[in-house]
Every structure is written in C-alpha cells, then in structure tokens.
Amino acid sequence: MSPRKKTVPPDGGWGWVIVLAYALNHLIMIPIMQNFGLIFKDTFAAMKFSATDGSIIINMNAAVSMFTGLINGPMLKYFGYRKVSFAGALFTTVGVILTSYARSFTAFLFTYGFITSLGMGMGMGSYPFALNLYFLKNRSKAAGIAMTITGLGPVVMPLLISFLIDIYGVTGAVLIIGSISAHSFIAACLLQPVKWHSRKEDIDEENGDATKEEGEVLIEEGKSCGLYDKNNPVMQSIISIDHDTEVQAIYGFDTPLNGSVMSLNQGVKQRRYSFVSYKSVIEGKAPFARSESEIKEEKIEDVNKENEVAPEKKKKVGFFKRILTTIVNIFDLTLLKDPIYVNIMLGMSLAVFAEINFSLLTPFILDDFHLTTYQIAIFLSTLSTADIIFRFIAPFIGDFLNKPARIMYMVSLLLLIATRFTLVFFESFYELLGVAIALGIAKGIRTVYWTLVIPNYVPIERLANAAGLQMVVNGLFIMAGGPVLGLIRDITGSYKRCIYVINIVTCMTLIMWTTELLYMRYKPKKNVEKPLRAT
C-alpha cells in the first residue's frame, strides 16, 4: 500500500524571497505615513492650516487604509495576494506623486488621505497573508526577519527626507519619495502563488502519522510548535497592520484565558481545521471556510426555521435570509458573537487610535518645542533605532517572563503611557533624545506582541476576516477621534493636552482587558461561554 501524500507549505525556499518582498514593501510604505508631518509641517503653516485641518488629513489617511481591511478579505479570496499587491503599489505611487502638487485642504484629503492610503491598506493586507501561507514551522523566524528589515525604514527615512527638503524643497522631495515608492512593484512581482512552491510529504498512517497530516505539526509533551502555540511569545503569526504600530500592526490578535490547558483531542481538531484551510488555499478553493460544527448548526437552524414558516412565506424569508447569510459569510460577522473577541478588538482599536495619533503628530508636537526639521529627524531616527533593537530583544524578554502575548502587550502599553507623559516635562533637545530612546524601547516590545494578540485567539482560517473587522473598527475610531485631538490643540494652543487624552485612551484598553481577564479567571467554569478556539 503506497503512502498517501499531504501538501505542506515550503517553510523556506521561495518563502525567503517572500520575506524580502514583505520587508521591501513595508520598508517603503511605513515611513511615508510616519513622516508626513515632518514633510508638510512647514507647508501647512504657510497655507495657514489649523491643527484640526492637519489632524483630519493625517487621520483620513490612517482611517481609509484601515477601512480597506473590510474588502481585503474578499479581494484576497477572489483575486489573490499578488494582484492585490500590484493594485496597492499603483495606488500608493500615484497618490504620493499627486500629493507633491497638492496646494489645498481638499487636494491633500483626496491625494494623500484617500488614494495613497487605499494603496497602503491593500499592501498591508496582501504581504502578511502571503507570509502566513508560505511558512508554518519557521513563521516566527520569517516574521522576525521581515520586521527587523522593515524597522530600518523609520531610522533612515527621516534623515533622507530632511536632506531632500534642504536640496530640492518639499515638492521635489515628495516626487523623489514617490519614485522610491514605485519599488513596491518589484516587491509585488516577487509574490508568486504558494502552489508553485508547495511540497508533498508521505503520510504513514500505520505509524500514526495521520495526526501530523491533520495538524502539520506534532503535539509533544502537551505543547504545540505550530500555529496555535500560545506559550511561544515569539512572532508565530502576523497578518499587518505591524503595521509598525503606526501602520502595520493592526493585524494583530491574543490568548485570553490564562492557565487553561488545551486537551490533545482539541489540539488535533484545531490543527486539522487549520490544515484543511491551508490546503484549500493552495488548491484554489475559498480560504475562509467556517468550521464543520458551525456549518452543521446553521443547517439545523435553517431546517427548524423553514418548518416553522408558513408555505406562502417561505420564498420571501428565504430570499432575505440568503442576502443576510451572504453578507455574514463574506465578512464572517459571526465573529462578533464572541464577547471575548469583541473586547479584544475594541481594546486593540483604542490602543491603535492612541498610538497612531501620537506617532503621526510627533513632528507637530516637537515643532511646538521649537525644534528644527533636522532635530526632529534626529529624534525620530533615535526613536526608531531603539525600537528596532528592542524588536530583537523583546522575544527573549517574553521567554524569560513566560507570559502570554496579550500580557506582554499590556506591559508595553504601560511603558508607552509613562514615556509619553515624560514628554510633557522636557523641552531641551538632549532631554528629548532620552525620551526618544525610552519611547523606542516601549515601541519595540509593543511591535512584537501586538501582532500576536488576535492571531493567538482567532483560528487561522478566520484570521483574514477578523483582521479586516479589526481594521474597520480602527478606522472608525481614528476618523471620529482624530479631529478631536486637532481641535484640542487649536483651543489650548499646545499639543500637551493631546498627550493627556492619548494616555487616557490607552488606559481604557488596559482597564477593559484587565476586567475581562479577571472575570474569565474567577467566573465559574460551567458558565464560561465557549471561545472561538481552545486555549
């Protein structure tokens, strides 16, 4: 009897080229958003834009890129990550070039706030998705390498922008940045379909290797080294937003129930589901399938409802039900039925709102301290250098403390609150450089762990849609709250009050998550609602 074959990801080979493509795209895209304030702060002042106007433009860019998450899942499903990445490169490049000629609030809002951000959102969704499909066992290494290279962008770009503005002015500098962003087309070309590089492995069922087929990895001594290892704080799963937090991470996700142990049968079932999802992707089938139990429950519910409805009303009810079911299935809105996921998502959105606004407003905050463009560039480069160093160190800190990803992320939020607050008390350049180092340390730890919070809770086959919902909520928060920070600056005449508001919003995340973790820990076990996945 010849052994059966199983299809597995390459876990190397062309996958390392995917890592390079991921790094190249994010190396270009993230600094474009981060340094917008550095480029146009003097232009905004010359055009007499208020702080509210500048805040609306900046937050419009962040919000639209996140709203793109709502369509990223369906686009990735029907067109594939390669075509989506090409579209993202086109929109971003055209948007940046058009922004160089913007001379009004409306023009900035359209070119930078809509066109550029639409391309960024597409790119931020397609590359992490490709990385997840190419790697399984080596995913943490691949994500770590990609994010480390990505971290070089915020270090180099502020200094390059300062140099270009001095030589060519704002318009010339932005045109050159637009040509640099065109290199994302090269990255898109490197995203070959995973089925071209997947390999076959034998399955020896007589020796019990069928379990390996279902899970892709062994479960040894009660631990998993695959997709759902909640005890491994290193980056196993990344589908973002990192966005350095500023832009990437937003695809992040975590393990909510501390101390609970997943049984062997549950682990095998979870991993069988993950393998079927991966296999369906490389064979060209829909990658966002729901679990068998969900499908069975839905069928039973449909039959019961059909029996209760009068014959003359069946056709009408069925029509509207099909529409609603289609919408729910496309965007996987059943995720919103899980209260733990909702709490995680809302907490992430609050933290993302605070972090993105602080990062994007940093050049304007430092401008209030009367720093020159060159000094602001030095501050941002120093911050980013400390950030990239602690991205490398953070996993070792997590290993030493042996804490779940969400706990480590909460620790990083505490550090961010403290370091932002110190910014209020220091004004000299060298004191501010010390604050930049402290901010970089906190950001480095945060960047590693916030990309793990949702993936550690949501099954891999539902992760793209979960990330899409997360980005949409992020966009709503940013769109609604961003202009408020600009209004506070206009009323008070200082960005210091904005720092207070940003810290309060971050504290709300800590309060929500701490309350949930304590509730789930001490609530009677029989009353605990079954989460999306075992922990």
Automatic annotation (TrEMBL):
SUPFAM superfamilies: MFS general substrate transporter. Pfam families: MFS_1. It comes from the Eukaryota. The chain crosses the membrane at residues 12-34, 54-72, 84-102, 108-130, 142-161, 167-191, 340-366, 372-394, 406-426, 432-454, 466-488, 500-520. Residues 318-535 form the Major facilitator superfamily (MFS) profile domain. It comes from Nicrophorus vespilloides. PANTHER family: MONOCARBOXYLATE TRANSPORTER, MONOCARBOXYLATE TRANSPORTER 12-B-LIKE PROTEIN. The keyword Transmembrane applies. The keyword NAD does not apply. Its main location: membrane. It is found in: Membrane. It is a multi-pass membrane protein. Coiled coil: none annotated. InterPro entries: MFS (IPR011701), MFS_dom (IPR020846), MFS_trans_sf (IPR036259), Proton-linked_MCT (IPR050327). Keywords: Membrane, Transmembrane, Transmembrane helix. The gene is LOC108560387. This is Monocarboxylate transporter 7-like.
